[in-house]
Structure to design on (89 residues):
């Protein structure tokens, strides 16, 4: 889960670092997508890391399913499309 994006500039070497602080989530239940929802449930942060933004391979939208920090992983549509669908209702 993406927590924050940040950028550092090293004024001595003129380098810029684009980083993100992420939490890796554990799979709850089966790692295979559910046949009804077609999604995997994740939750409970395992570890936190700071990584280069360029190292992130792809995106997935996390849909909250309750107040216990459980999410369904929606990797079928992009965030823009999902927000367009839900913002119009």
């Amino acid at each position: 889960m993406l927590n924050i994006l940040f950028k550092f500039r090293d004024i001595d070497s003129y380098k810029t670092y684009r980083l993100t602080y992420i939490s890796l989530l554990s799979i709850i239940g089966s790692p295979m997508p559910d046949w009804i929802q077609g999604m995997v449930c994740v939750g409970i942060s395992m570890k936190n890391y700071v990584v280069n933004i360029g190292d992130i391979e792809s995106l997935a939208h996390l849909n909250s399913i309750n107040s216990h920090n459980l999410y369904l992983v929606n990797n079928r549509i992009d965030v823009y499309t999902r927000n367009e669908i839900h913002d119009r209702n």
Q: What stands out?
A: The chain has a mean pLDDT of 81.
